């Protein structure tokens, strides 16, 4: 479920029985309903919130991007915000990464998970890969800070990571900035073991969002593992 909200919670909202939803919940609903910008802004105002403002990191995925996820159902796909929040994913993306709808919303962030969390699947599992991925993650937040210096959620995330992870703080003080990059990554899956997948990135410039797509060469052992993930992983999710 893209909104990551229970059916009961949505029903209570519709019936006016729940507390006023937060702006994060409204953003999730707008995304799940695939609203355009005008309808999204109206939904925010009806809920008593101001629509997303310039200078804030966009947390809403365009309907056209969600349609792209639907068309790429045979590959694991994630959509990330400028600060690494997992905004949307397809079923195979959940089979690879875990059921992200069960994660608390503020923890549904790949950079937070890398330094402070633990998920059922580890991406970039080798030591060299892990170091490169850690540096890329910190560089991504550096780039986000340069674009959105006043975003309060970004400020809180960086502060939490610096307090909770000495490794993050060490890399942060190096001052390097870089976007997500394409790479071949080792995947350590709890049921399928370790295998490699190509991870390609597509930048969506208007919201500085990134689409991550995992794939394997047809006919390769890795492609076989991806086929197994389609069966085993989806059953687990």
TrEMBL record:
Superkingdom field: Bacteria
Coiled coil: none
Residue stretches making up the MmyB-like transcription regulator ligand binding domain: 61-228
Organism: Nonomuraea solani
Alphabetical list of InterPro entries matching this protein: Lambda_DNA-bd_dom_sf, MLTR_LBD
Protein name, per record: Helix-turn-helix domain-containing protein
GO molecular function: DNA binding
